Amino acid sequence: MIKETRKVQRTGKSTLIVSLPKRWATENEIENGSILFVSQKQNGDLFLSPEISEQDQTAKLEIGEKSGETLVRDVISFYIDGYRTIEITSNRLSAMQKRDIHSIVNKLIGPEIIEESSSKVVIQDLLSPEELLPDRVLKRMKNMTRSMIQDALSTIIKQNNELAYDVMQRDDDIDRLNLLMARQFTEILKSSSISQEPINPITVFHFMQAASNLERMADYAAKIAEISTQIDYDQSPVAIEKIPEIISMYSNLIDESISIILNADNIRANQLLDRTLELKRQLSIMVGLSGKMDDGMRIRLLVSDSFERILDRINNIAELSINLHIALLEN
After folding, report:
1. SS3 content of the chain, % helix, strand, coil (to 5)
2. CA 161 from chain center: how many Å?
3. Would you state the pLDDT for residue 197?
4. Which DSSP string corresponds to 16-84?
5. 3-state secondary structure of 124
6. 8 Å CB contact between 153 and 247
7. DSSP assignment, residue 1?
8. Could you report the per-residue pLDDT of 109-120, keeping only the tens digit for each?
9. How far apart are the C-alpha atoms of 309 and 288, rounded to whole Å?
10. Could you give the 3-state DSSP secondary structure of residue 297?
11. Fewest CB within a 10 Å sphere: which of 42, 80, 94, 305?
């Protein structure tokens, strides 16, 4: 066992460096430009490794005759748990099982099938962890969710079924990003990776919760789009003229909620909570809920319910921002 001391030195204005034991570097073929992996243990000690064990990042799943949602949930669980490679085996994989496996891969960002035979399918994650950092994932989800809500509301005015189906299809993309965010949080907890700009696990936990709320907003947008395709109806003039105002209002609220949590701004978060409370009071008026209970009324009631639920999710993100602000102060 190598036991040596090293003196920490400063290079540049803020970077601290320490030299490696020469014998260790030689034995592990470390030279200029080599990549080393540094992780922090719970007691604060740093662990230095020339490579990450492939075995530690590989999951082996014997599925027997398992198929359908049970198989989907198992593979997604391994994905969220941070495994880079998933080996799925059986005595003989049926056509249905292979179809399910291909369907699973399409639900995830990064994994691709790199090997396939009659008894084994190997899925490998080809996405580099640095390609989509948690804050970038959250911003992308925000932009996509906002766009879905805008287009879903537009389908009410235009009764454009093609646009409505496009909104419903985009819901799958939001689901994929939400799973990626959950995976990133797990990886950070497991590795406690040290980088030039370390990511605080507490921050990523709150980002993950915010992403979950965006995912639910996207579900409501898909629901609004679906509703617009199901019933032929004549919207009341009041409802139609209010929709552009609603589109602008919700777009701004979603943008602001994510801006607030990215900056852990508790003052703006409280202001946003006050605004959404007032908007809830005005909601029934803005969607034009009046008159007899005809198809148009039923549509507006269902859409109004989705509006209110989206506001609830925006509230959740504002509250997460307050919680994150306090948590970062304490740490």
Report:
1. 60, 10, 25
2. 28
3. 45
4. EE-PPPHHHHHHTT--TT---EEEE-TTS-EEEESS--TGGGEEEEE-TT--HHHHHHHHHHHHHTT-S
5. strand
6. yes
7. -
8. 999 999 999 999
9. 18
10. helix
11. 42
Mean pLDDT of 59-74: 92
Q: Which DSSP helix (H) or strand (E) runs through 11?
A: strand 9-11
- Of the candidate ranges 20-34, 130-144, 247-261, 289-303, the one whose mean pLDDT is the lowest: 289-303
Distances (CA, A) of 99 to 110, 116, 194, 220: 18, 12, 39, 29
User: What pTM, to 2 d.p., does this model score?
Assistant: 0.77
Q: Which residues pair with 89 in a beta bridge?
A: 62, 120
85 in helix, strand or coil?
strand
Give residue 192's region: left, alpha or beta (phi > 0; psi -120 to 50): left
CA dihedral 192, 136, 257, 207 (to 10 degrees): -20
Looking at residue 227, its pLDDT comes to 84
> What mean pLDDT is predicted for residues 46-59?
66
**pLDDT reported for residue 173:** 94
Max CA-CA distance within the chain?
Answer: 85
By DSSP bridging, strand 15-17 and strand 9-11 are antiparallel
Structure tokens at 177: 């990003």
What are the tokens at 296? 């148009």
Provide φ and ψ at 87, rounded to 5°: -100, 115
Strand partners, 9: 17
Decide: residue 169, CB within 10 A, 0-12 exposed, 13-18 middle, 19+ buried: exposed
SS3 269: helix
214: which residues sit within 8 A by CB, 6+ positions away? 138, 141, 142, 145, 174, 178, 254, 258, 313, 317
Q: Which of 53, 68, 128 is nearest to 100 (CA)?
A: 68
Residue 279 CA to residue 213 CA, distance in Å, equals 19
